[in-house]
Amino acid sequence: MRHPTQLYESVFAFGMFLYIQRVKKNAKPGKLFDMFMISYFTFRFFEEFIREESRPILGFTIFQIICAGVLLTYLIKALVENYKSKKSDKR
């Protein structure tokens, strides 16, 4: 028995599509893409735990390592943007 991860991913993608259609009018440029990337890579990181894949690096799959890298990049980007906006607000 295996989990139907392709179906889980399809349901997730359809849900993201519906959500993006709902909020796209009020979103700032680039923010929908950022939100999608963070949501997808978070979803995929956890989905990998139920997939039948080899786990060569500290019990994680290669794609989980990639997901962690992408999420870390977005965290750093958010921190830098927050720092810049606080710095410009003080002026």
Summed up, the domain count is 1
- Sheet of most strands: none
H and E string: HHH
First-last Cα distance:
60 Å
Task: Please count the beta strands (DSSP E, at least 2 residues each).
Answer: 0
Number of helices: 3
- Low-confidence spans: pLDDT under 50, at least 5 residues? none
Structural class: mainly alpha
Q: Give the overall form.
A: flat
Mean pLDDT across the residues is 90
Brief descriptors of the model:
3 helices, 91 residues, mainly alpha
Secondary structure blueprint with pairings:
Layout: H1 5-23, H2 31-47, H3 62-89
Helix pairs in contact: 1-2, 2-3
Model description:
- The chain is mainly alpha-helical.
- The chain has one domain.
- The protein contains 3 helices and no strands.
- It has helices at residues 5-23, 31-47, 62-89.
- Helix 1 packs antiparallel against helix 2.
- The radius of gyration is 17 Å and the shape is flat.
- The termini are far apart.
Summarize the structure.
By secondary structure, the chain is an all-alpha fold. The chain has three helices and no strands. Helix 1 packs antiparallel against helix 2 and helix 2 runs antiparallel to helix 3.
